[in-house]
Amino acid sequence: GENVGLHLPTLSVQEGDNSIINCAYSNSASDYFIWYKQESGKGPQFIIDIRSNMDKRQGQRVTVLLNKTVKHLSLQIAATQPGDSAVYFCAENAGGTSYGKLTFGQGTILTVHP
Amino acid sequence: ETGVTQTPRHLVMGMTNKKSLKCEQHLGHNAMYWYKQSAKKPLELMFVYNFKEQTENNSVPSRFSPECPNSSHLFLHLHTLQPEDSALYLCASSQVRGRGNTEAFFGQGTRLTVV
Question: Which of A24, A114, B31, B67 is at 20 to 30 A from A93, Cα to Cα?
């Protein structure tokens, strides 16, 4: 049945710990993936992206891993800080004629305790 | 500063009102989008404009009417909305290339309340 309310997955960590946020995507034709961070009262902010010809990409304190076999994406945040507290979304794009169309996951709430 | 500016930030409107949301991007992108974010659903794509042409209408009710006069501006015209349309409406832009896409940059959103 249809969900009346959406209960987002939550992750609580201590400051300084590493965080791992997971995402399962649905479209095997998707070839471009993005992680976004959304703080309260703001629009989503780009964190990092990865194309399907890669399985790992690193940024500053963040790493994205892509497992196309099981259609799974993860975001690793090293040395998590209170400012990292936000909702994190993965998004997928199938490219080709569907360029411009991002399909978002439901999001994960990350709370970092000082 | 995101490069994508939305106005107004907050809007309260009655069900018989007509209002418009405005979005402007300063990034030189060729594609713009409207998304709806409500508490009960994941972020939902509403409309896609590539090179000012609408290429996607994700089964959005006709009480939402988009307009893209040029590649930098995007409007969402609202009329006879319903309380369940209350949500955060997000505008985004991206640069669509021949192969593959680049990330979408989002505005801060317009918090819409329909009373």
Answer: B67
What contacts B9, CB < 8 A, 6 or more positions away? B108, B109, B110, B111
* Any A CB within 8 A of B23 CB: no
| Model confidence pLDDT, tens digit, residues B12-62 | 999 999 999 999 999 999 899 999 999 867 889 999 888 767 777 778 999
Q: Residues B23, B71: contact at Cβ < 8 Å?
A: no
Strands A108-113 and A86-93: antiparallel
Minimal C-alpha gap between B39 and chain A (Å): 7
Q: How far apart are CA A75 and CA A66, in angstroms?
A: 9
* B1 interfacial to chain A (CB closer than 8 Å): no
Residue of chain A whose alpha carbon sits nearest to that of B89: A43
pLDDT, position B86: 96
At residue B92, what is the residue type?
A
